[in-house]
Amino acid sequence: MVAGLLKVRRGMSEIISTLMLNYIAILFVQYMTRGPLQDPKGYLPESAQFVAAARMPTFFDTRLHLGVLSRFSCADCLRAAVVDAAGLPATGRRLTRQRRALRPASM
Question: Taking CA atoms, which of 8, 16, 27, 37 is between 20 and 30 Å from 105?
Answer without folding.
Answer: 16
